[in-house]
Amino acid sequence: MTEKNGRRWNHNIHYHPRILHAIPDGAQRALDVGCGEGMLARELRRAVPRVTGIDLDGLSIDQAREHPDDVDYVLGDFLTYPFEPASFDVVASVATLHHMDAATGLARMRDLLRPGGVLAIVGLARSTMPNDLPRDLAGVAVGTFHRAMKGRWEHPSPIVWPPPVTYPQMRALAAEILPGSQYRRHLLLRYSITWRKPQD
């Protein structure tokens, strides 16, 4: 693990601001899906009074609980854990959706949001060749520059590679399950989805 000037960087952390900027005003409860050792959950807690992080990896949850914060860290399966429906103002997920069936995961996140709540996702998808080759090469070049300047922090969580769903498939799923959502593909080999749940 490498940190420069006491700060962590990797491709996922690079896009944390997209999650944090999506937090709606007055949000009281946030859920971090696949929280790992809790870095994003702790960032969410600076803006939201009650934050829950859930992850299947026990070692990551143990590391998260070592931090002196009041985030509620849960060891469990996000898809089956008995959260109350429509109980969160923010549901966030970074580099987690490709660990589960994407359609099932998106629907579960949608159902846990209160009306007016925001879903904010940063994820990984599979490139399709040769169409994605120029974009991927550009992403690798920019990522190499960032690592040279900032170091690269290796998270402790399990890795799933390659992602089972392609970028076009993720875009289509988001449009189907989260009508009106904003999908964006990013240079550093990531995509983001933001969606505000309609008011009843």
TrEMBL record:
Write down a Pfam family by its short name. Answer: Methyltransf_11
**Molecular-function GO terms, alphabetical:** S-adenosylmethionine-dependent methyltransferase activity
> Which SUPFAM superfamilies has this protein been placed in?
S-adenosyl-L-methionine-dependent methyltransferases
Question: Which top-level group of life is the source organism from?
Answer: Bacteria
Question: Which GO terms fall under biological process for this protein?
Answer: methylation
**What keywords appear on the UniProt entry?**
Methyltransferase, S-adenosyl-L-methionine, Transferase
Query: Where's the Methyltransferase type domain?
Result: 31-121
List, alphabetically, the InterPro entries matched. Answer: Methyltransf_11, SAM-dependent_MTases_sf
Q: What is this protein called?
A: Methyltransferase type 11 domain-containing protein
Record the organism: Acrocarpospora pleiomorpha
